[in-house]
Structures are given as structure tokens and as C-alpha cells.
Write a structure and sequence with these properties.
322 residues; Alpha-Beta Plaits; 2 domains; 71% helix; 10% strand; Cation_efflux
Amino acid sequence: MAEQKSESTLTVLVALGANLAIAVLKLVAGVITGSAAMLAEAGHSIADTFTEGLLLTALRRSGKPADRAHPFGYGKERYFWSLMAAVSIFTSGALFAFYEGFRTIFGEDEEQTSPLIGYIVLGLAFVLEGISWLRAVRQVRAEAATEGRSVRRYLRLIDDPTVKTVFFEDSAALVGILLAFGGIALHDATGSAFWDGLASVLIGVLLAGVAYLLGRTNKGLLIGRQADSTIVQGARDLLASVPEVEVVVDLLTMVTGTDQVLLCARLDFAENLSSTELELACVRISAELRERFTDLDEIFLEPVPRTDPELRARVMARYGEI
């Protein structure tokens, strides 16, 4: 877990350095050329820079150990700050891009100056963003391979939003640069600022889409998402195979942080067990679960009768007939 956190921190730091340099270049080029698309991209990079700062805060605060006030730890702080990063992408990037785009489309036609500077800056920005993007891609591919998943499935199930945020925002940045390049080029070729404004609006749509995807991911994790299906099914199979357990009545899991899962199992134990045997069985089962599934942070095992009507009704209300 410490190694993964170090990898995530390095990925965020690389993105922060790249975005800060790019934001300055784009802002200067936007002022010189008067391009709405370039100014929208400057706003995009400034938003990304704020985002990386929020992600660093997420990494630092989520690593705090559990205490009396937060007995399950501070793992979900990573999701809160990552949600704030998604909000930053929308408010600082998308809204500014929409403003610049509509102002250019519906305002007076403005003459573009020194488009060559815009091309050069966008080329440099593409190289710097590409370095940050490749760093994020390498981490995503390595972690997906470790878990035996495709990159697409890994990104859908990942419980570390910092890596996903950097990957998506860098991907959006590369697409945004191409849109800005096309807007400046078409403005230069036709003399119409409409294309420049349209590129800015499309950049806004792109950023709003990324913000929505990241916000939805972090919302699910903050609410309390079930653990990965591999852990859920594996834990259920292990519990069902224990000699002392007759029936797995209920199994609840929740992601409480990156690589941290809370598991609660209600089990119908064999009737001939003494209280001492039951206690020893619970200790042994917990140890076996932790050994097989290292993400399990807290485990609660509750002996219950399988025929209890109230409990059975709650389980069926949650999952339906199984």
C-alpha cells in the first residue's frame, strides 16, 4: 500500500509540474494571440494545477491513522478531496471555456495576431502533457496487470481516485490541445473567429464530461461502495467452506479507503459448538480472510440463526431472492 501511495504521489507531482509550466505558456500565448481557444486551454491548465494540489492534499490526509474520532481511519478523505478536484475542473476550466467560446462566437469578430506563437506553445504543451500522461498510463497499466484486469475494467473499479483523475485530466488535456490547435488554424485560414470560439466551447464540453465522470466515481466511493467482486465472492466461498459454518446468512462489504475494505459477515454456526470453540473459530476465520485478502482492514463476524425472519427480510430487501 505504501509503495502504491508513493507511485500515486509521484504521478500527481509530475502532472503538477507539467500543468504549472503549461498554464503559464498558454496564458502568455492567449494574451498575445487573442485566441479564445488558447485562453480556454490556459484556464484548463490552471484548473488542472489546482486539481493536482487538491490531489496531493487527498494523498496526505487520507494516510492519517485511525483514532478515537475516526475509528475506521481517514481513507475516505481521498475521495472527498478528489471530488473537490472534479468540481475544480468544472468551475475553473469548463465554465471559463464556455464563457470564452460564447463571447467569441456571438461577439464582434476579432482579428487573430501571431498565430505562430499559438502553434509553438501548443506543440510544447502537447509534449509536456504527453510526459505526464505517459507516467499515468504506465502506472495504470502496471496496476491493472498486477490485478489481472484490463485497463478499462481496472479504471472502472479502481479505489484510488488520484490516479484515475490524473489519467483522465491528462487525456482531456491532450484532446483539448488538438481542439485549440484546430480552432486557431481554422481562424487563421478563414479569418473567422467562429472556429476559435467553437473550439473553446468544445473544450468546455470535454472538461464538463471529465468532471462528471470523476464526480460520479467519487460520489459512489463516498456513499460507501461494495468491495471488488473478487473479494466479495472469494470471502463468501471461504466462509462457506469453513467446517464450523453451516450457512453464510449475510455478507456486507464497504470500501473505506484505498486498499481498505470493511467486511461484516452473519454466519449460522453449527449447533454443537461450545462458546470457546465459537470464539476460536471466529479468530481463525478472521486470520484466514486477512491472509487471503490483504485489502481487508476490519472484519466483523456475527453468529445468527438462519431462520430469523427479521434478518432474512432485511437480506431479501437488499439483494432479493438469492
